[in-house]
Amino acid sequence: MNVLEVKDLSIALPAGGDRAHAVSKVSFNVGRGEIVCLVGESGSGKSVIAQGVMGLLPRTLPVAGGTISLLDEDITRARESRLRQLRTTRMSMIFQEPMTALNPVMTCGAQIDEVLKFHTEFSSIERKRKILEIIREVALPDPERIVASYPHQLSGGQRQRIMIAMALVLEPALLIADEPTTALDVTTQAQILKLIAQLQAKHGTGVLFITHDFGVVAEIAHRVAVLRLGELVELGVRDEVLKRPQHEYTRMLIGSVPALAPKSRPVALAGKADAPLVLETLKLCKTYSERGWFGAGRTVRAAEDVSLEIRRGQTLGIVGESGSGKSTVARCIVRLVDPSSGDIRLAGKEIARMRAGELRPLRRKVQIVFQDPYRSLNPRRTVGDAIIEGPLNYGVTRGDALSRARSLLKLVRMDDTALARYPHQFSGGQRQRICIARALAMEPELLIADEAVSALDVSVQAQVLELLEEIRARLDLAMLFITHDLRVAAQVCDQVAVMSQGRVVEYGPARDIFARPQHEYTRALFEAAPGRGFAFGS
Amino acid sequence: MRIGASVLAVMVIVALAAPWLGTVDPSLFDAGSRDLLPGKSGEILTLEGETLQHTFVMGSDSFGRDIYSRVIYGTRVSLVVGIATALLALAIGIVCGLGAGYLRWLDGILMRFMDGIMAIPAILIAIALVALWRGSLVTVIIAIAIPEIPRVTRLVRSLVLTIREEPYVEAAIALGTPTWKILFGHILPNCVAPLIVQGTFTCAFAILVEAVLSFLGVGLPPDIPTWGNIMSEGRAQFVSFPHNVFFPGIFLAVTVLAVNILGDGLRDTLDPKMAKRV
Fold this sequence. Notes:
The structure holds 2 protein chains of 2 kinds.
Chain A: E1 2-12, E2 21-31, E3 35-39, H1 46-54, E4 63-70, E5 73-74, H2 80-86, E6 91-94, H3 98-101, H4 108-119, H5 124-137, H6 143-147, H7 156-168, E7 174-178, H8 186-203, E8 206-211, H9 214-220, E9 223-228, E10 231-237, H10 238-243, H11 248-256, E11 277-289, E12 299-311, E13 315-319, H12 326-333, E14 341-346, E15 349-350, H13 356-363, E16 366-369, H14 383-393, H15 398-411, H16 428-440, E17 446-450, H17 458-475, E18 478-483, H18 486-492, E19 495-500, E20 503-509, H19 510-515, H20 520-528
Parallel strand pairs in A: 3-8, 3-9, 6-7, 7-8, 13-18, 13-19, 16-17, 17-18
Antiparallel strand pairs in A: 1-2, 1-4, 4-5, 9-10, 11-12, 11-14, 14-15, 19-20
Chain B: H1 2-16, E1 40-45, E2 51-56, H2 67-102, H3 104-118, H4 122-133, H5 137-163, H6 167-174, H7 179-187, H8 192-216, H9 227-235, H10 243-270, H11 272-276
Antiparallel strand pairs in B: 1-2
Helix pairs in contact in B: 1-2, 1-10, 2-3, 2-5, 2-8, 2-10, 3-5, 4-5, 5-8, 6-7, 8-9, 8-10, 9-10
């Protein structure tokens, strides 16, 4: 029996959008005890479908045709009061960011209790018993303490478990999971995926799982539906779709997923061992201390004894989970923050304690590209002004800087009409190219990419990675590549440093580390990488 | 917002075109035309000694001055005070706010000083300053602007504190952009929208405070026609001749309301987050 049946569903976009329908004529179903993955890039309409099923569509996005049947009841025609009855009793949803999905001023227990109070006639003792039971079921330690905690006192993974507990407490027939692991670290993601799979198998819940990540699809899906620009292009059993994709778009998407095995690069390209040293850090430390109201405050060791070296033409990857200190190291090297102790040698010169005035001539040698392409460019400046800002600071004339900006745009494969336009007129991938052009305008010796491809769709990610690789080779740059994604690291890095809790736990040639990880933590990271069983990108 | 803007536009036109709107010199008085009711005709003596026949649309006050002319000319003073105060408070507040938000060492000292100013009621500071310097247009503007500066400073500082963490500011640091260029080229342009809104509210507040100061007799000298002065003068006879207070009061209320409506409208259109909520 089908828990959910979506038939010819069309959802209109407001007039003036880039297309008439957010979703057009999409049909699929979710059976009892089945996990169906909706996969697509940003803008494919996958989240809109989820909102439609939950009856949460904003008034600007009306259902234009088709039906959504939940246990044979058409949701598109249901009144708001009926929808409210159905939510959490028959269908539930969990979201990407558990911190914002939970109310920060209510304890976790009270939030689950609210669901029970609204939908059931249980007495307070029964409700309490039920809450503790579901918290035990989502494998949270010390349930009594968790019930009394506020969301900010829990970790991201724990918060997502609370969301799952809240969603499943009334045993709904359908669970919608909208990118539930995207904001989590890879090891936590593996645990949450396992938990969702376990719970749905135990209760026979149908799951509509929305994701952009084919690794996750490979881990959890029974069937896969691929969306492109609001249209369903392929629907089938997981192994069929992943191994023998029929549609061209699916093939392109799966082909863009980077392989987990390091690319073998010719020695000439991979940076010779005797190439000149561009950057070296020696026992670099950064501690943040909070001053307490009374007595000593808390100190956080964001980076501890980090010693790395990067040679010309070489790419060093720093891999680690959030809070491992990888970005702190990058920010110390660019001197956006001042290191607490240790040395940073840029082309032989010690810069860790250099004052602003002395540092200024050296700044141009190190440039950085950030994660978020939407915030990396000043929204009130044209692309041209952004690219020439650096050279102008160092006395290049406007005309020279502009002509160089034109050739740089060509290098990052963009049109030079972009110069006069503003950043909001470009997509995420294009903005990231502009950021790369801006960094290259300084003719740096070291380019730092701080999660530079993490916010991009997989097909765009593949293009930007290729571009970075090409630029590094052509300009013989040294590159420091910071990422949480092992697959990305495997594609571009010659050397890899694995960081955990501020320390480098493993450091060596990428090939060795990917083939034979030595440290326990590195091994855990590899274990957790989603979709290991599938040979993507080959 | 359109209503606010149009009312304000009318006010500006009225202020500019005051001499051609059937007014007489607002300081003229005639002992024979004292306390006339609105709409009555009477005579008024010009400086040259001629006697003019004049219809007192809004009546006359206890000196025999034409209230209509005084209210219309009063619009000039109110708008000048409002706009000049807003510009002055914004200019000083922006510099202080940028400094406090970006330069850590300056933050503590400057903000404690601002907290000190904010602890004193705004009107009290204004009264004290005008009393100290003697009432004139410039001193009134400065006196009203000073208690407004900390509000602007706080706003700019809070904006700077969030914008300075934006990657594009960090990228500018990495590009070797000097601090003053970062402040005025990257951070300030991204603060403009909330500042315009704050400016309109400061403007409305300044118009009100100017009227209050004049009403209390510590603002501009009583011979200069301002709405506050007219009301102050009419206060004594309010029971028998309420029009002396009524007409300037209406102008004051409508202008302040228009500025506030404009400010609210600007906040909604300039803040993309608010605009998206359809």
